[in-house]
Amino acid sequence: MFHPNKRFYIVTVLLFVFIVALAACSQTPVEVTRVVEVPGAEVEVTREVEVPVEVTRVVEVMVEPEAPVSAVSVVPFEEKWVASAHADVTAEAFNHWNEDDPKEVPVACAKCHSTPGFQDFTGADGSAAGVVDAAAPIGTVIECQACHNDIVINMDTVIFPSGAEVSGLGAEARCMTCHQGRASTVQVNEGIVNAGLDPVADLDTVSPDVGFTNIHYFAAAATQYGTIAKGGYEYDGKAYDSKFDHVEGYNTCASCHDPHSLEVKVDECQACHTDVETVEDFANIRMAGSLVDYNGNGDMEEGIYAEIEGLRESLYQAMQAYATEVAGAPIVYDQASYPYFFTDTDNSGAFNEGDERYATWTPRLAKAAYNFQVSLKDPGRYAHGGKYIIQLLYDSMEDLNQAISTPIDMSAMHRIDHGHFAGSEEAFRHWDEEGAVPGSCSRCHSAAGLPLFLEQGVTINQPTANGLNCATCHADLTTFELRTSETVKFPSGATVSLAADENDEAGLKSNLCINCHQGRESTVSVNAALKDLEPNTVSDQIRFRNVHYFAAAATLFGTEVKGAYEYDGQEYLGRNEHVGAFNTCVECHNAHALEVEYVECAECHENVQTPEDLKAIRVSEIDFDGDGDVTEGIYGEIATVNEVLYAAIQAYALNTAGAAIVYNPNSYPYFFADANGNGTVDEGEGAFASWTPELLKAAYNYQYAQKDPGAYAHNGQYVLQILMDSINGVGGSTDGMTRPSLAE
Fold first, then answer.
1. Spatial CA neighbour of 463 closest among 474, 478, 452
2. Cβ neighbours of residue 19 under 8 Å, at least 6 residues apart?
3. pLDDT in tens, 465-491
4. Which residues contact 618 (CB under 8 A, 6 or more apart)?
5. 694-736, pLDDT tens digit by residue?
6. What is the pTM of this model?
7. CA nearest 736: which of 616, 618, 619, 629?
């Protein structure tokens, strides 16, 4: 390494190091060698570190004889690192084992609480990766060489305690290796099973073998990845938010935190969050995708942080009630005292000296306590994945409520957001097993699908999303400028616009909505599927065609886009023109909450006090459904005609198609063969397969009316037309009914 014609100079530099936060350091000297590049020289740095940390470096500088004889060693970002939690030599996280015998960081802890342990786990020390082979010596923190080596720099995969593996990561894989917690749904259930109990059947059975499971500290990645990592306890039958998707460019650990100081990049956040001046201000953030009152306190202005705090307080009340009533011993929590949960011996409601470890656990209480702790041990929970934490707290409380005499009032609380932001729901979780949303669905069921379609006119496979995000509709997140869509093409091939002209702001905004709220079928596609088949003959070439959900725009435009099936020889109503100021999506619905602006409806419809009252509105004195009631709303008129159509479909299926049919709006493919003829879908009854062209047309329109819940308001008389025509198509009777005319 040393050339005989070179001179060597030794430069000694004294460095005072402070180190901040994740693990613990001891008094044992540690020798560290670095190679540092300086102009015209190669510098080998050797440090000997002892607490208090005074670092002496011996710098051997190789230079040509004519080169300057002085050189300065500079370690990149060292000043930031020194002030970080990763470098805090005084922290418990690095000193916890100093008095143990032997004095070493045990195998179970070494990965994240020492540099040698992290190198051992990652294989940077030459050992097998993915496991810690030996205890680590005390006396180190998370030093430069932990992350800066040829092995770790190429890491892109992380395995969570649940067993979930996430690949294709960047530099954040280093962070997530430790910031993932040490437990999950899996470990909580294992603890219950190992105690000889069933996590479902033995919910309220006290066992000395059931204990508290602690997720550990700073499990930020588990919070962010939600149900992918299953870091919280997820209850059977419940769906949970997936990875929290922030915005492009700020969606990883290192893009939001300085990787050396660990501090949040506050100045960069201010571009969108203009009210943020300090880290503390993040707790007050609440965006337009959070327009429900999660904790039920009536405050819709507080940040997600406060919503979580309120839910946790309510959960704690439920836990204390349950512990006393069901488990038989009062419980108290102290965040600063291991093992956190104690028997409240004097019923004071607070942890006091002498209170012992809580030992009267049941499976139900153990699950709730785990989620309670999960909601506390990630300080940035509200930013990393607040909606996931909210769901965990809500479900824990709901579960405890089933067993206590005075349940917590949850009537004003909310578990999920409105549709576009409800990341836990089927509209966004349907493709989790496949791992991607196919191009045929991604325009409306992924965060990035609509922007791509608007810009390029195509759809491709997209990553699964946790609901839509701001960038789905907003092209600029500093000005919140909306994306534009001057016209919209429908499945029938028709191209329309809700904008009267290029200056119609409400219409142009609403065009964004109708890119998705248009359905996926039409008269055109149904006719194409039926071809020249005999109208009343069963054919195995026919399958049910589903218009899809919330095709509000197709209803609104009526025959202009032919979203419903329109029968030959009949005339149909076109776009439903309401009134000037309330004639587009965003004028009638809140653009983010999606709720109807019913308060403004009351200006004309005086009896409207609640959204439910909208169903009572009618603007015609004609008794369309023929039931003699001309005071019921259009909603009621449609409901009656729907019932008649369903009966006609069932009669036709049995008498003409030769097989009984039954409908279930919540189970795909919706129409089933009613093998036992009991009128309900039973286990084992498969999809209805005895379709004729006429039966398909009628079933399609029946489904159409079901899947637009606002059909009565969007274009109620158009819907009455297609339902009545469908009744006649399958041989039913519309005697006494009045089909709406074009004039009406």
1. 452
2. 25, 53, 82, 84, 85, 86, 87, 88, 89, 90, 91, 94, 141
3. 999 999 999 999 999 999 999 999 999
4. 630, 631, 632, 633, 634, 637
5. 999 999 999 999 999 999 999 999 999 999 999 999 999 999 9
6. 0.88
7. 629
